[in-house]
């Protein structure tokens, strides 16, 4: 079946439908990961976006029930060069096409994703629409132009959990799969704010020895402090951090009271809570092969990333210093407070998908809590 992708700036790509049919729209971004499409599909931070994978073949390893990062698929469209229905993997239980259909996610394949990526890189990430029902280029471009811009959108409030819950699952193990931690293994009480949290962040925290209570985005700081946690964790999530004013105000109440660790949207919200600014990047960084340097150790780690916004470190010069830097585009990849036990990263140390180079950051959070306790 025919499918069309139209961008707001008028560029149109013809392709074939896969996954669900119909019409879907969102901000089109490119992801440079070669594998891990299942984790990409279930990453809540992609809400409101349509993702094109720069790697050419997708679907080869099918879908399995274990590599999910949340309870559902969040992106609104999936754009690939070549979809492979004939999958092969020891854990696979269904095809990517069936998975997208079952979850109502519109896909398009058979288009020149290299040309699309180069276009987004040159002109910037922008809104687009995929359709298997309207084949009129002009009408599609018009619809793409009517979609609200990602800048200014608070999407995290729509993906956070309804009520607090306890998480005990540890990192996946080849022999044992997923297992739960025993109470004796969990030494540090952590309140984790869910702005669209990925499961593997929770697993990394638990495997590092944290007793994790996940709370909704608007959970009052006073109630979190009453739980007497050793540390506060701020999660990743979709959308622009700037309009989340109540959340930013709430985070400010932890500053100077508890160790804080933030990832991605959590890092951006922390930057705003500390009095800094955030900005929208031209096309951001989405992938699992992005080089980052730890400014303390001068070590380079290959990281997983998924962001369109960034913290302006100059605006935080009075309180924070740059702790990690992206070696591709020199964006701020991490910061640490000059005096308080507070740090955050823009990239995703939990990977999923991606290399485990940055897992040490969960250990750093635990060390910080240990020192603060003492
Ligand atoms: N993965 C994330 O937390 C993304 C943060 C934010 N939505 C951005 O695009 O920059």
From TrEMBL:
Organism listed in the record: Geobacter benzoatilyticus
Residues at the active site: 264 (nucleophile), 348, 350
Chain residue ranges for the region called CPSase: 1-188
Name of this chain's protein: Carbamoyl phosphate synthase small chain
Reactions it catalyzes: hydrogencarbonate + L-glutamine + 2 ATP + H2O = carbamoyl phosphate + L-glutamate + 2 ADP + phosphate + 2 H(+); L-glutamine + H2O = L-glutamate + NH4(+)
Quaternary structure and interacting proteins, as annotated: Composed of two chains; the small (or glutamine) chain promotes the hydrolysis of glutamine to ammonia, which is used by the large (or ammonia) chain to synthesize carbamoyl phosphate. Tetramer of heterodimers (alpha,beta)4.
Gene3D superfamilies from the UniProt entry: 3.40.50.880, Carbamoyl-phosphate synthase small subunit, N-terminal domain
SMART domains: CPSase_sm_chain (SM01097)
Root EC class: ligase
Xref: PANTHER family: CARBAMOYL-PHOSPHATE SYNTHASE SMALL CHAIN, MULTIFUNCTIONAL TRYPTOPHAN BIOSYNTHESIS PROTEIN-RELATED
Entry's Gene Ontology molecular function annotations: carbamoyl-phosphate synthase (glutamine-hydrolyzing) activity
Binding site for L-glutamine: 45, 237, 239, 265, 268, 306, 308-309
